[in-house]
């Protein structure tokens, strides 16, 4: 019987439950979309790496001293003599020497094809017959004036076989004839430019050397062949199996995809968390409205458990339908995410059981848990309530709620503080748990907070808009629990969006302050790719009229006291001047075997001026550099500076990342002259203070926009919650609305009253959320002040816009409930029981 009751209730409350299902759909869509997207990208990466090391049994390469690859140019290369030695090893089949590095092609529009920074690599290689890729058209390169490129790069650059293209490497740009196009499949946005072996060695490594040597097996297992090969290798060169090579290729990508999946799932959980408030609120109102119906069931013999199961049954049905539609919407979201990945997302969607299982698990469990407490309250409805004309569930005291809410809020704030202080192995866990606790605690305190806030927010409406304004304020104050629960969903979304925007504004302000205080050069000439500033361009910069000093800088990794450490190398006095370093002790003029560190590094290591510092460079060589100076922390150059001479003694092919340029006068004419000097090099950019600030702002703005878009989903769910609450409230107040119309309230005034109530609820959520967001942002800035966020900046203009947007959400959310209320028949409304 109770099963039939559940089905009838679902049919009777279709619109209300559909609105509830929307919250489930949106939350599940985020979960399903994330899982489908990452599964699809993982499959594409697996297909890509299936070609890497294909048919390779053993790979011979230099032993890695430090982490990082640096396009194969930092590690010690393998001499060609090793290739000859390998040809005599029993079981070795077809050994091939590979040359890897940076190379890019300039299209007919004069722009470099591919993403230069923080994106898929621009791969340079030597072309070998029978390698990982096949020619789609044309022939293999022969001689220094020929090149083959991948077909997608040719399409983007509007290049074809026979065209002459400008090719960029670590050396001077060269004009080469495209003699072939390579079928690479989906390179996930990377580009491939290949030369014959001697040309590749000259341009990307050095003649007579390879980046590594790969071979197949003529019979022995990979492990056995590796052991045989290892016996003929010189010191500093190692042999690894093809299986290990393929696993290494996949591991970095796997880590990146796992991080990306976790990152997106965090936002999915936020949406589900917000949706839980909506589901809880909806079922609470449905139970309150059906008090007489539930009491009648109790009166005719239904047990408490049966009533609870009936309400839970409705929740299961809503969760199942919402999960199904959410799964379908998730596929669309995954497809949208792929389009945002550009060339890296062209492989189609991959569907596995994982998104299906998690979608239904999350959708149904969250809905049932959110509906459980309203269901329990429904079961407690006394049978005698069925005999009353006007019944409602009793309002409980807020004392326990206030005490628990305060305790949870304080505990959450404590966890955030502990996480930001760096307590534990993974500070993100206490910060996330603390934020969750603060949101739950504030939501519990919401009914208490809402009364004074709604009185203030509603005062202008009551004063300026007459009866509709006063009635709207009274309606919002009538049930503070409902008002708070509805506003809590919007509070969470706007709190997180505000936090992101405060951090973005803080990052922009901090970068501006850092550039103003630490940038002491007139200009920087920097490379937009891994090729750096070549020697020819360096000479042109030096010869530019008005230039008085030019200093090249390098960056690399080394091992210092057994740990990988990043460093910047160059002329130390010039770097000290360019970065406006504040020397704590010592001097920048330390000679060709010197190192400088910031005072934090010196303190942690117990170093003083004159301390010998053993450094193991990427080529395996070890030098004892002398600490010549200690400087105050600089975010511009980092914690370590090494003399250019020491770096160059160990660099296989030195790559200048940035040229520091000082001029007679930093003005428009000098900037134009420098721009003209590097015009022939599309990968180079002349930057002054304004350019550096602008570049940093673009990166920060992109980051903030991306996070804000992800968080908008939670705001949309919150808006659905406002619609749901108002719609149910209109049904609940049917008789009241009829009486108001009977005593003279016009339809227009009635609709205005509902719109104003909606606006007040939305503004309450926005004010509460933005207040929490500013507090979170300030706490994060304070914790990260030593990491470069030294200036707190609150974007008041943006927050004002969000306040207006919240009001607009309130107006839009009230359109349908207000329209429905205005269409009520007055006499039927008054007679409603």
Automatic annotation (TrEMBL):
InterPro entries: ABC3_permease_C (IPR003838), MacB_PCD (IPR025857), Macrolide_Exporter_MacB (IPR050250). Residues 266-383, 709-825 form the ABC3 transporter permease C-terminal domain. Residues 18-200, 483-671 form the MacB-like periplasmic core domain. The chain crosses the membrane at residues 263-288, 309-337, 357-375, 402-421, 433-462, 483-504, 703-731, 756-779, 799-819. The keyword Transferase does not apply. It is found in: Cell membrane. It is a multi-pass membrane protein. The keyword Membrane applies. Belongs to the ABC-4 integral membrane protein family. This is ABC transporter permease. The lineage of its organism: Bacteria, Bacillati, Actinomycetota, Actinomycetes, Streptosporangiales.
């Amino acid at each position: 019987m109770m099963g039939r009751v559940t089905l009838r209730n679902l049919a009777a409350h279709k619109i209300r439950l559909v609105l509830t299902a929307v919250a489930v759909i949106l939350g599940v869509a985020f979960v399903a979309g994330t899982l489908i997207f990452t599964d699809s990208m993982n499959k594409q990466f697996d297909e890509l790496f299936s070609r890497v090391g294909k048919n390779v049994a053993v790979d011979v390469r230099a032993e890695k001293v430090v982490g990082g690859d640096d396009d194969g140019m930092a590690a010690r290369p393998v001499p060609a003599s090793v290739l000859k030695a390998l040809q005599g090893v029993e079981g070795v089949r077809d050994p091939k020497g590979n040359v890897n590095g940076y190379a890019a092609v300039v299209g007919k529009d004069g722009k470099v094809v591919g993403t230069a920074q923080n994106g898929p690599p621009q791969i340079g290689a030597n072309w070998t017959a029978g390698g990982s890729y096949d020619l789609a058209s044309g022939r293999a390169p022969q001689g220094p004036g020929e090149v083959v490129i991948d077909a997608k790069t040719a399409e983007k650059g509007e290049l074809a076989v026979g065209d002459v293209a400008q090719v960029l490497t670590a050396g001077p740009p060269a004009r080469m004839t495209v003699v072939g196009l390579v079928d690479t499949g989906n390179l996930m946005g990377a580009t491939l430019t290949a030369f014959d072996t001697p040309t590749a060695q000259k341009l990307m490594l050095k003649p007579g050397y390879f980046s590594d040597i790969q071979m197949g097996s003529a019979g022995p297992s990979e492990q056995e062949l590796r052991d045989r090969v290892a016996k003929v290798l010189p010191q500093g060169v190692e042999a690894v199996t093809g299986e290990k090579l393929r696993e290494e290729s996949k591991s970095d990508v796997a880590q990146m995809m796992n991080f990306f999946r976790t990152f997106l799932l965090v936002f999915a959980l936020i949406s589900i968390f917000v949706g839980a408030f909506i589901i809880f609120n909806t079922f609470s109102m449905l139970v309150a409205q059906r008090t007489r119906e539930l009491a009648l069931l109790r009166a005719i013999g239904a047990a408490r458990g049966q009533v609870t199961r009936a309400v839970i049954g409705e929740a299961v049905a809503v969760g199942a339908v919402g999960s199904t539609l959410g799964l379908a919407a998730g596929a669309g979201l995954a497809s949208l995410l792929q389009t945002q990945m550009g060339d890296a997302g062209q492989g189609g969607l991959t569907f596995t059981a994982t998104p299906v299982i998690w979608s239904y698990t999350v959708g149904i469990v969250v809905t049932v848990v959110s509906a459980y407490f309203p269901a329990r309250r429904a079961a407690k409805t006394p049978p005698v309530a069925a005999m009353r004309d006007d019944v409602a569930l009793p309002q409980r005291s807020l004392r326990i709620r206030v005490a628990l809410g305060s305790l949870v809020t304080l505990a959450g704030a404590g966890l955030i503080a502990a996480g930001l202080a760096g307590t534990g192995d993974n500070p993100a866990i206490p910060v996330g748990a603390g934020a969750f606790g603060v949101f739950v605690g504030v939501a519990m305190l919401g009914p208490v907070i809402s009364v004074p806030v709604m009185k203030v927010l509603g005062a202008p409406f009551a004063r300026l808009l007459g009866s509709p304004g006063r009635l709207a304020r009274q309606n919002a104050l009538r049930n503070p629990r409902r008002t708070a629960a509805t506003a809590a969903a919007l509070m969470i979304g706007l709190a997180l969006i505000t936090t992101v925007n405060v951090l973005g504004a803080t990052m922009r302000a901090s970068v501006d302050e850092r550039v103003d205080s630490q940038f002491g050069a007139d200009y920087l000439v920097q490379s937009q790719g891994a090729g750096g500033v070549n020697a020819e361009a360096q000479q042109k910069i030096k010869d530019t009229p008005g230039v008085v000093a030019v200093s090249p800088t390098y960056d690399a990794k080394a091992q210092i006291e057994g740990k990988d450490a990043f460093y910047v190398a160059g002329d130390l006095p010039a770097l000290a001047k360019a970065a406006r370093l504040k020397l704590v002790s010592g001097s920048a003029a330390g000679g060709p075997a010197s190192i400088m560190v910031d005072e934090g590094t010196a303190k942690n290591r117990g170093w003083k001026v004159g301390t010998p510092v053993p450094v193991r460079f990427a080529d395996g060589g070890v030098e004892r550099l002398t600490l010549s100076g200690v400087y105050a922390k600089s975010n511009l150059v980092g914690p370590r500076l090494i003399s250019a001479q020491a770096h160059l003694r160990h660099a296989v092919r030195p790559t200048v990342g940035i040229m520091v340029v000082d001029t007679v006068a930093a003005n428009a004419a000098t900037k134009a002259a420098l721009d003209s000097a590097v015009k022939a090099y599309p990968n180079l950019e002349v930057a002054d203070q304004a350019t550096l600030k602008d570049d940093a702002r673009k990166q920060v703005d992109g980051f903030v926009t991306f996070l804000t878009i992800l968080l908008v989903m939670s705001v949309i769910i919150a808006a659905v919650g406002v619609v749901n609450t108002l719609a149910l409230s209109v049904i609940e107040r049917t008789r009241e609305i009829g009486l108001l119309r009977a005593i003279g309230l016009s339809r227009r005034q009635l609709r205005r009253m509902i719109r104003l109530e909606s606006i007040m609820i939305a503004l309450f959520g926005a004010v509460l959320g933005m207040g929490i967001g500013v507090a979170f942002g300030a706490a994060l800035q304070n914790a990260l002040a030593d990491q470069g966020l030294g200036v707190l900046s609150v974007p008041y203009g943006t927050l004002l816009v969000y306040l207006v947007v919240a009001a607009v959400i309130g107006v839009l959310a009230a359109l349908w409930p207000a329209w429905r209320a205005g269409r009520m028949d007055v006499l039927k409304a008054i007679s409603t029981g």
